[in-house]
Amino acid sequence: KEKGMKFPLLLKASFGGGGRGQAVVDKPEDLAEAFSKCSKEAEMSFGRPEVFVERFLPKARHIEVQIVGDGKNCVHVFERDCSVQ
What we know:
By secondary structure, the protein is α+β, with helices and mostly antiparallel strands. The protein has one helix at 31-46, and strands at 9-13, 22-25, 51-55, 63-69, 74-81. The protein has 1 helix and 5 strands. The strands form 2 sheets. The chain has a 3-stranded antiparallel beta sheet with strand order 2-1-3.
């Protein structure tokens, strides 16, 4: 149950990405509906309904760094801000 959880929460598809199967939940009374919706979207998009819960951090940034290597040489290709996902 949501007892003891601190809101807002972020529900995320366990086997997904790109923002699919994801929702911010601001209030405990919205949790069950959001969980059901995310789980269904996760199953439709990724073939697995599992969803996990984490604390939503509204000002956090998600930056990815792309690196390519062949075992001897390594090159930094670019970075991108994926926060909007």
